[in-house]
Design brief:
Blueprint: H1 7-15, H2 20-38, H3 46-58, H4 67-74, H5 79-92, H6 104-111, H7 116-129, H8 132-146, H9 151-167, H10 172-182, H11 188-204, H12 206-212, H13 216-228, E1 236-237, E2 240-241, H14 243-257, H15 261-277, H16 283-298, H17 303-316, H18 322-335, H19 340-344, H20 347-352, H21 359-371, H22 378-391, H23 394-408, H24 416-426, H25 431-444, H26 449-468, H27 481-493, H28 499-511, H29 520-529, H30 536-549, H31 556-559, E3 583-584, H32 603-607, H33 624-627, E4 655-657, E5 666-669, E6 674-680, E7 683-691, E8 696-705, E9 711-719, E10 728-731, E11 747-754, E12 764-771, E13 774-781
Parallel strand pairs: 3-13, 5-13
Antiparallel strand pairs: 1-2, 4-5, 6-7, 7-8, 8-11, 9-12, 10-11, 12-13
Helix pairs in contact: 1-2, 2-3, 3-5, 4-5, 5-7, 6-7, 7-9, 8-9, 8-10, 9-11, 10-11, 11-12, 11-14, 13-14, 13-15, 14-16, 15-16, 15-17, 16-17, 16-18, 17-18, 18-21, 21-23, 22-23, 24-26, 25-26, 26-27, 26-28, 27-28, 28-30, 29-30
Pfam families: Adaptin_N (PF01602), Alpha_adaptinC2 (PF02883)
Organism: Sphaeramia orbicularis (orbiculate cardinalfish)
Subcellular location: Cytoplasmic vesicle membrane; Endomembrane system; Golgi apparatus
Length: 782
C-alpha cells in the first residue's frame, strides 16, 4: 500500500483484513508513513494524514505522536487544516497534557476571528477539553460572545459557558447577567443554551437560585408559547413543538419551584395545561409528560395537580413500553409516602406488573406493592404477594419473603412468641448475644408487641448476662440496673403495650429481683403499684409477686430461678428435626380381680393439660384401660385406706394403672396420705401428703430404682388443668436427677399445694428418665 493512499482506501484495506494480525500490520505500515510525512517541513497533505491518524485512534491504536501536529494545524490560517486540527485536539488532547496549554493562545485568537465558523471551532474545542486554567483565561471572551448579535455564536458560547461553570464555580457570577438576557431571544437554539446555563448556575449557587426565581414568569410564557403553538416544521417532533426545549424548561422550573411557594404558584396553571394537552400516545409526548410529573411532585403544587400527576404515572403503567412502566414505578416509589392515597388508586395495576416478564419491572413492582400494604388492604395484598412468592424468580424470592414478613409488622400468630422463646432457651451459647440485641431493640421501638414480649422474657431470664456487658459478639456497652428497669417501666407505662405485653414486663421486672442487688426496693415498689391495676390479670400477678416479697420471701429465689430448656415434643410443636431418640410408653399394668374399676373422668378433663405436657392438636380419647380391664388380663388388687384427704383432691378411690397405646395416661386417684403412684420395671414412685392448713398441703414424691442398672436424667414436671388454674402449685428443687441401682439412694421432690377455694383438683405429672440408653416418658394424673 502506498504511503499516500486516501483515507477511504486505508479504511477499505483495514476492513478487508482477515485476521487481527493482518489488521495490525496494515495500521503499523500506515502509521510509519504518517510519522515520516509529519517530519517533513513542507507537507501539503498534513490534514489528510491527521484525518487517517484520527481513524486509527478511533480503532483503539496509539496515536499520541499526532498531538503536536494538531497544535500546528490549529495555528494554520487555512480553514480545512484548522478544522481537522481542532478535531484532533478534541480527540487526542485533554486537560492533563501539557500540549493542551499550547493551543490556548490560538483559541483566544480564533474567538475573535471574523468567520463565525472559525469562532465555532474554538468554542467547541474549549467546551470539550478546556482545563481550569484555560477557562479562567478565556472566560471574558466567552462572556463577550454571549452578547454578540449572531445567534449561532451565542448558542455555542452559552454551551461553552456551561463547561466553564462546571470547571470553575466562581466564574458563574460572570455569566449570570448575560444568561438572563438570553431568555428574550426568539431562536430556540439560543433559548436552549440559555436554559441549560441558568440551570447549571442555580444548581451550584444558592444566591443565583434566588436571583433567577424572578425569571419564572418569562419561562412560563416561553413554555406556553411552545404548548399552544401550531405546527412548525423547523421544531416539530412527532407532533410536539420542540420537546427538547420543553424538557429543559420543565427541569429548570422544577429547580426554581422547589421549596418556594410563590414560584410554585406561578407555574401551577402551566403545568396543568401541559399535563392535559400533551399527547401521550407518542414517546416524545411521554417524555414531556414525565418531566411535567417530576416537576409537579417536586414543587409545592396543589393537591389536585399532584393527583393528576399520579394518574399520569398510572397511565404509564399501562403502556406497552416496559421502559415507561419502569420509570413510572420508580416515580411512584418516591411519592408513596407522601401521596399514599393517590397511589393506592392504582394498586391493581401495580400488582398486575408483578406478572411482567421483565425482571427489572417485576422487582420494582414488588417494592412498590410492599410499600402499598396497609391495615385496610393487608388481606388482599398478602394474598397477591403470596401468589407471587410461589412463582417468583429465585433472585426475588428472598426479597419477597422478607418484605412480606416486614409488612406484617407485629401482627404475628400467638404461638410465634413461645416458639421463639423455646428456640432461644435451646441456644445457651447465644443467650448473652440475644439479650443484648433484644435490649437494644426494646430501646429503639416498642410498637412491635411480639418482639417486646420476647425481649422482656429474655431480660427477665438473662438479665445478669446483660448487666455483665461482656458479650463478645457485640460492641461492649455498659448497661446499669437502672437502665434495664427504666426500659421495662417504659413498656409497662406505654399506651402501645397490650395487657399480655405488660404481663411479660412485670414478670421480667420481678425476675430481676433475684438477678440484681442494688434496686430490689425499686422492683418491690413497681410491683406493688400494679397490685391495684384495673386489669385483673396484671393485678393478680402483682398481688402474687407481692406475696413472694413478703410471706414467701424465703422461696422467692427458688420460684424465680432461671427456666430450664423448654422441650416441645408434640407433633404440632416440633422445631427442627427429631433427635432420633426412642420414646417408649409403658404397657398397661394388669389389674387383679377384685379391684374396683376406675371411675371414668370426662374426656375434656383428661385431655385439658397445660402445654407443659406438649399437648396434641387432636383431643385425646379415653382409653380402654379407663373402661375396665381387658378380657383375659389378670387383676391386681391394691386397696388403700386412708380416708378423705381434706377433700382437696376430689375424694376418689386409689387405683393405679399404666398407659397403653395411643397416648393413654397413668391415672392415680387417691384419698390416702401415702400411695404408690407407679411401680413397674423396677421403678417405684410414691406420694405422701402432709397437711399444712385448711387450704394448703405439702406433697412429697419419692422415687427409687430396684433394677441392676442406674437411671439418669430423671425429671418430674407438673401442670394443672385450666379449671384449676387458680390453684397455687409450687415445685421445689429435686434432691437429684439420677436413681442408683438396687435402691441405694432415692430422689425426693416436694410440692406445695394451695387451694383456697377448695375445688376438686387434678394435678398432671410427667416423668422422664433414661434407662439403658432409652428415653422413657410417663404421665401421671393425680
Amino acid at each position: 500500500m502506498s504511503p499516500s493512499v486516501p483515507l477511504q482506501e486505508m479504511i477499505r484495506a483495514i476492513r478487508s483484513a482477515r485476521t487481527q494480525c493482518e489488521e495490525r500490520g496494515v495500521i503499523q505500515r500506515e502509521c510509519a508513513a504518517i510519522r515520516a510525512q509529519f517530519r517533513q517541513a513542507d507537507n501539503g497533505g498534513r490534514s489528510h494524514n491527521l484525518a487517517k491518524l484520527l481513524y486509527v485512534h478511533m480503532l483503539g491504536y496509539p496515536a499520541h505522536f499526532g498531538q503536536m501536529e494538531c497544535v500546528r494545524m490549529i495555528a494554520s490560517p487555512r480553514y480545512s487544516e484548522k478544522r481537522v486540527g481542532y478535531l484532533g485536539a478534541m480527540m487526542l488532547l485533554d486537560e492533563k497534557q501539557d500540549a493542551s496549554l499550547l493551543i490556548t493562545n490560538s483559541i483566544k485568537n480564533d474567538l475573535s476571528h471574523s468567520s463565525q465558523y472559525v469562532q465555532s471551532l474554538a468554542l467547541c474545542t474549549l467546551a470539550c477539553m478546556g482545563s481550569a486554567e484555560m477557562c479562567r483565561d478565556l472566560a471574558p471572551e466567552i462572556d463577550r460572545l454571549l452578547r454578540a448579535s449572531n445567534s449561532y455564536i451565542k448558542k455555542k458560547a452559552a454551551l461553552c459557558a456551561v463547561h466553564i461553570v462546571r470547571k470553575v464555580h466562581d466564574l458563574g457570577e460572570l455569566f449570570a447577567p448575560a444568561a438572563r438576557s438570553l431568555l428574550s431571544e426568539k431562536n430556540h437554539g439560543v433559548l436552549h443554551g440559555a436554559v441549560v446555563l441558568i440551570t447549571e448556575l442555580c444548581e451550584r449557587n444558592p444566591e443565583a437560585l434566588e436571583r433567577f426565581r424572578k425569571t419564572v414568569p418569562d419561562l412560563v410564557q416561553i413554555m406556553k408559547g411552545l404548548v399552544i403553538s401550531g405546527y412548525s416544521p423547523e421544531h416539530d417532533v412527532a407532533g410536539i413543538s420542540d420537546p427538547f426545549l420543553q424538557v429543559r424548561i420543565l427541569r429548570l422550573l422544577r429547580i426554581l419551584g422547589h421549596n418556594n411557594e410563590a414560584a410554585s404558584d406561578a407555574m401551577n396553571d402551566l403545568l396543568a395545561q401541559v399535563a392535559t394537552n400533551t399527547d401521550s400516545t407518542k414517546t416524545v409526548g411521554n417524555a414531556v409528560l414525565y418531566e411535567t410529573v417530576l416537576t409537579v411532585l417536586d414543587i409545592k403544587s396543589e393537591s389536585g395537580l399532584r393527583v393528576l400527576a399520579v394518574n399520569i404515572l398510572g397511565r404509564f403503567l399501562l403502556n406497552n413500553d416496559r421502559n415507561i412502566r419502569y420509570i413510572a414505578m420508580m416515580s411512584l416509589q418516591k411519592i408513596v409516602g407522601t401521596d399514599h392515597i393517590a397511589v393506592q388508586r392504582h394498586r391493581g395495576t401495580i400488582v398486575d406488573c408483578l406478572k411482567d416478564p421483565d425482571a427489572s419491572v417485576k422487582r420494582r413492582a414488588l417494592e412498590l406493592s410492599l410499600a402499598l400494604v396497609s391495615a385496610s388492604n393487608i388481606r388482599s395484598m398478602m394474598k397477591e404477594l403470596l401468589i407471587f412468592l410461589s412463582s417468583c424468580p429465585l433472585e426475588l424470592r428472598a426479597q419477597a419473603a422478607s418484605g412480606i414478613f416486614n409488612a406484617a409488622g407485629g401482627d404475628v400468630r400467638d404461638e410465634t412468641v413461645p416458639n421463639l422463646i423455646q428456640l432461644i432457651t435451646t441456644a445457651s451459647e447465644l443467650h448473652c448475644y440475644t439479650v443484648h440485641k433484644l435490649y437494644r431493640a426494646l430501646l429503639t421501638d416498642i410498637s412491635q408487641q411480639s418482639l417486646v414480649q420476647v425481649a422482656c422474657w429474655c431480660i427477665g431470664e438473662y438479665g445478669d448476662l446483660l448487666l455483665k456487658g461482656d458479650c463478645q459478639e457485640t460492641e461492649p456497652v455498659q448497661v446499669t440496673e437502672n437502665d434495664v428497669l427504666d426500659a421495662l417501666e417504659t413498656v409497662l407505662q406505654s399506651h402501645m403495650s397490650s395487657p399480655a405485653t405488660r404481663g411479660f414486663a412485670l414478670t421480667a421486672t420481678m425476675k430481676l429481683s433475684t438477678r440484681i442487688t442494688d434496686n430490689v426496693d425499686r422492683i418491690r415498689s413497681i410491683v406493688s403499684i400494679y397490685g391495684s391495676c384495673i386489669d385483673v390479670e396484671l393485678q393478680q400477678r402483682a398481688v402474687e409477686y407481692n406475696a413472694l416479697f413478703k410471706k414467701y420471701d424465703h422461696m422467692r429465689a427458688a420460684v424465680l430461678e432461671r427456666m430450664p430448656v423448654i422441650e416441645r415434643n408434640s407433633p404440632g410443636h416440633t422445631n427442627g428435626e427429631s433427635s432420633g431418640e426412642l420414646v417408649k410408653e409403658v404397657q398397661p399394668v394388669k389389674v387383679k380381680e377384685g379391684d374396683a374399676a376406675p371411675t371414668q373422668q370426662p374426656a375434656n378433663q383428661v385431655c385439658d393439660l397445660l402445654d407443659l405436657l406438649g399437648g396434641s392438636e387432636e383431643p385425646l380419647k379415653p382409653t380402654s384401660a379407663q373402661s375396665g380391664p381387658a378380657p383375659g388380663q389378670p387383676i391386681n388388687t391394691s386397696n388403700s385406706s386412708g380416708g378423705d384427704l381434706l377433700d382437696l383432691l376430689g375424694g376418689l378411690e386409689p387405683v393405679a394403672f399404666t398407659p397403653g397405646r395411643n397416648n393413654s395416661m397413668v391415672c392415680v386417684f387417691f384419698t390416702a396420705p401415702t400411695v404408690t403412684v407407679y411401680e413397674k420395671n423396677g421403678v417405684t414412685l410414691t406420694l405422701s401428703c402432709e397437711k399444712q392448713s385448711d387450704s394448703s398441703m405439702t406433697v412429697t414424691l419419692t422415687a427409687s430404682n430396684s433394677t441392676d442398672s442406674d437411671i439418669s436424667s430423671f425429671t418430674l414436671q407438673a401442670a394443672v388443668p385450666k379449671v384449676c388454674i387458680r390453684t397455687f402449685l409450687l415445685w421445689l428443687a429435686p434432691s437429684g436427677d439420677s436413681l442408683p441401682a438396687h435402691g441405694t439412694a432415692k430422689v425426693t421432690q416436694t410440692v406445695v399445694l394451695n387451694n383456697p377455694n377448695k375445688v376438686g383438683m387434678h394435678t398432671h405429672v410427667k416423668l422422664a428418665l433414661t434407662f439403658k440408653a432409652h428415653l422413657y416418658s410417663l404421665y401421671v394424673r393425680k
